[in-house]
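Chaperone protein DnaJ, pasting as requested.
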Amino acid sequence: MADKRDYYEVLGVGKDASDDDIKKAYRKLARQYHPDVNKAADAETKFKEVKEAYDVLSDGQKRSTYDQYGHVDPNQGMGGGFQGGDFGGFGDIFDMFFGGNGGRRDPNAPQRGNDLQYTMTIEFKEAVFGKETDITIPRTENCDTCHGSGAKPGTKPQTCSVCHGSGQQEVVQNTPFGRMVNRRSCSNCSGTGQIIKDKCTTCGGSGKLKKQRKIHVKIPAGVDDGAQLRMTGEGEGGLRGGPSGDLYIVIRVKSHDFFEREGDDIYCEIPLTFAQAALGDEIEIPTLTEKVKLKIPAGTQTGTFFRLKGKGVPRLRGIGQGDQHVKVVVVTPSKLSDEQKDLLRQFASMDGEQTHEHEQSFFDRMKRAFRGD
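Structure tokens follow.
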């Protein structure tokens, strides 16, 4: 695990960072390295690193474990198997030193299936309001003919006569230091502890088949870019009666032409004319669901923000919605009639301003620049 960076370092926060600090740091970095936005060769790798760090540090239990053990998973330590209140891991260690089975597990025990990951790209408003859809994923499932045993119907696997079901063989070697006993996977049964003489004709004795499975997915309203949905039991099938793995759906949200999102809040920019900003006006503002009226006070400066309360994104784990923040930008006209110019000159004169106008072509200005004028 030495090649992994510290999760706090990845997100650029201290170990005393609050949940909000971690969330803000993640959102900033996720936007920076999102493969749909950042086309750098290492963008996707960095995005996954940021996502992994956030998944751990945003979960109270995972963060506590990480703070205590670092990248070393205590559930995968020596002997492999210290999980919750199960002290099987310690039993394996004692067995190794005091003549037990050397930490080996029963090769015929039920085994959980592998987890799967699916990346789903959705539209901006689909993330805001949620959606239901069907996806098709390839996954390994138990054979319906033999129910995962690999044996022809009416028969069953037999215990390996070489390893007697343990899945391992002992190899004794005489060395200058004495007799050495090594254990290795049984060559007769390939470590399974069982021999299938009459194989299932459907799966060829593997007990598994590759299938395309259609799954109905409900995306909750308010889901954000980089979110991960877990569908329990929708991963690959388990072995020997073990449970299926889980399916993790990673959400990627397309950008919007007008709206930008920051958490549960929405941001947008609205252009104003000089007259609207100076004299005030009432304008229409598009929101996620409708158009609303916004009163612009006289004398509004460019860059001013107005808040539309409750017009943002529905809160994923709460009640209510975020807000919409409207930034007004005063647009300077690029083409003026002679009458408009005269009126502006009069306005500037009344305000005590002096104007210095130079009518020149683009090429004249370029020549002057080269001459250093």
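Note for the archive: The chain has three domains: 1-70, 110-139+208-254, 256-372.
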